[in-house]
Design brief:
Chorismate_II_sf, 14 helices, binds manganese (II) ion, Chorismate Mutase Domain, subunit A, Aldolase_TIM, 377 residues, binds phosphoenolpyruvate, chorismate mutase, chorismate mutase activity
Length: 377
Amino acid sequence: MKLNLNIQPLSSWINVKNEPLIISGPCSAETEDQLLSTAHLLAATGKVSVLRAGIWKPRTRPGEFEGIGSIGLEWLKKAKAETGLPTAVEVANAKHVEEALAAGVDILWIGARSTANPFTVQEIADALKGVDIPVLIKNPVNPDISLWIGALERINNAGITKLGAIHRGFSSYEKSSFRNEPMWELAIQLKTLCPELPIINDPSHICGNRELIPYISQKALDLDMQGLMIESHIDPSVAWTDAKQQVTPAALEELIAKLSLRDPESNNEAFADKLAELRKQIDKIDDVMLQKLSERMAIVEKIGQYKRDSKVTILQVNRWDEILKKGTAFAKALKLDLGFTEKFLELVHAESIRKQTAIMNEGKTEEEIVEAAAAKA
Ligand code: PEP
Ligand code: MN
């Protein structure tokens, strides 16, 4: 499947001062002085292309600071006039859109909580009909790529062609070192569905702390993302929101200076030849691996038939334990990552069980059984 979005290249609507594209500014506009002094220091780095600030803050719990509101738009206007930086603001309803447009905001973004709600996204899309402004859409809070795509489609259908996505990670029930799990594979999937869609990474909301931001920023660039949105505050320790993850403008400058820019392609012929040769070797090994997996599954089927005819259960826990123990010990000797090996063996084992379950059910797979039941229901 390819995603059919009518979009203009990012370079046609953002003047990128310095590679990579950096959007920065405080999580929230708090006071005129805080916003202006931060904006001036960010502009002075010469590395920042867009000034961001939250004016209306979507808070998970009531009673927390919910944004300074419309007055902040006046401060942003002033910051733009004084620094020349175009501005970006989060909008979460039609009224925000109207106010931001009236205040001359240059770029709008839709936050993660809004992207998760098609009613909200549609309301914003309707408010944007006939307007020519860039819109960036953050991934939804939950790891559901359809919601992200749906939001991009709704905004694009409203006629917005200056469109981009922001990858800010996904909330997860499991405890993790990240505030929001990056789940890079979802951003990569979106890129694959629509290669011309610019994707900007937001390491601040992925990390939730300052320490991991350089690592995630570099990884995003290495995965060929088009830019970074990083929260910066003149004095993060007293920030009213997201204090732990904001960096000073000076720290931002240092962080950007340390990033390595790598090309997605190289024009060097020797490099291309060497890469092609190594890839050929990988392809050969992949072929052998798949061939061996196919042979393994053929044996699994035989075992399944044998178990069925002998009235023996599919799963013998001891046997699975033995496979895992032997496999991981071997993997260790081969210097393969243990976590990876376990996941791989689990996947192979799950497929073996799927195959044997089909054999126990007159050749029908679980998907077919579930589908047939659904059709009858
Ligand atoms: C933000 O950018 O300050 C913000 C609220 O982000 P998100 O929507 O990603 O949580
Ligand atoms: Mn924030």
